[in-house]
Amino acid sequence: MRLAKYLAHAGVASRRAAKTVIAGGRVSVDGEIVLDPARDVGEDSRVTVDGHALNGPEARVVYAVHKPLGVMSTARDTHGRPTVVELLNKDPTHPSAHLRLYPVGRLDADSSGLILLTNDGELANRLTHPRFEVPKTYRAKLGGGPIGDGALRRLRRGVELEDGLTALARVRRLGTNLVELTIHEGRNRQVRRMCEAVGHPVLALERVAFGPLRLDGIAPGRHRRLSEREVGDLRSLPAAQGL
Questions:
Q1: Of the four listed, 15, 56, 113, 243, which is most buried by Cβ atoms within 10 Å?
Q2: What's the pLDDT at 39?
């Protein structure tokens, strides 16, 4: 097995991120620092990351987490702010406490809602790869007065941002200043920038769905482990044809 894949299976990081870990000189195989992510690793190889030995592949798990406001969507934070991983690992008796979990994608600190945590690097890479265009649905409370049909049409057809025109989106009005948007791109703070561009700044933003998964039934700060069927559904998502 190639070293980058081994690290991904061991839950260190996604395969793509594992290459960065290796390039940083943080990985040793049988006592020798290795910089080549394609290096073959055998069953009896001793692999360490930052001096800590890996015990081989972990059981693959995926958790759906309801991220509250102010919580960082990272595994750790250099400024001591709370992270989504800590929502699970704050209890040392929790089954996930010994696993190397990391978030799938990102959700801004000032946004709440559904985010996935996993130790399955291949699945994480699949869910964030642009080719699969996994849809994500957000509920946004907007300022700027009542939301008109013109603003909705612009959001659906695409909005010109500083990094280019956004792709088609599904948008429906839920109330005078409340909308639900489904996008499949992963640009930084995209929903906020789209709404701002059509004259309706976001006052509150919550992700309510990620692919086929819904936030329903998970209280803020809580989580649930996905079933094998749900994980299988995520693995079998086809390359999207757009919205």
A1: 113
A2: 92
| Homologous superfamily, domain 136-210 | Alpha-L RNA-binding motif (3.30.70.1560)
Q: What is the pLDDT of residue 239?
A: 67
Which token pair is 175? 């109330």
Q: Which CATH class is domain 62-130+213-235?
A: alpha beta
Does the predicted TM-score (pTM) go above 0.90?
no
Q: Name the token pair of 39.
A: 């290096």
End-to-end CA distance of the chain: 37
Per annotation, catalytic residue among 36, 44, 91, 108: 108
* Helix, coil or strand: residue 243: coil
pLDDT score recorded for residue 160 = 95
Distance, CA of 3 to CA of 49 (rounded, Å): 12
Question: Is 108 in the active site?
Answer: yes
